[in-house]
């Protein structure tokens, strides 16, 4: 399983975080901080990016 941390840091997932923020209870920046600390980050991001 590949780490999503580099994708969060280089801005690749900015649109995903903005979309998640629009639908959730956190800001995009709060999601960026939360997901690298989550043990299931890769699974969560994969679900968010699924069509």
Question: What does this protein look like?
Answer:
With 51 residues, the protein is mainly alpha-helical. The protein has one domain. The protein has helices spanning 5-10, 14-23, 28-37, 41-49. The model has no long low-confidence stretch (mean pLDDT 78).
Offer a quick outline of the entry.
The protein has 51 residues and is an all-alpha fold. 69% of the residues lie in helices and 0% in strands. It is globular, with a radius of gyration of 10 Å.
Structural key phrases:
mainly alpha
Task: Break the fold down into its secondary structure elements and pairings.
Layout: H1 5-10, H2 14-23, H3 28-37, H4 41-49
Helix pairs in contact: 2-3
- Largest β sheet strand count, sense and barrel closure: none
Cα-based radius of gyration, to the nearest Å: 10 Å
- What's the overall average pLDDT, rounded? 78
The general outline is globular
Give the count of structural domains.
Answer: 1
Q: Assess the beta-strand content as a share of residues.
A: under 5%
Fraction in helix: 55-70%
- Class by alpha and beta content: mainly alpha
How is the quaternary structure best described?
Answer: single chain
Q: In whole angstroms, how far apart are the ends?
A: 20 Å
Topology order in helix (H) and strand (E) letters: HHHH
- Ranges where pLDDT stays below 50 over 5 or more residues in a row are none
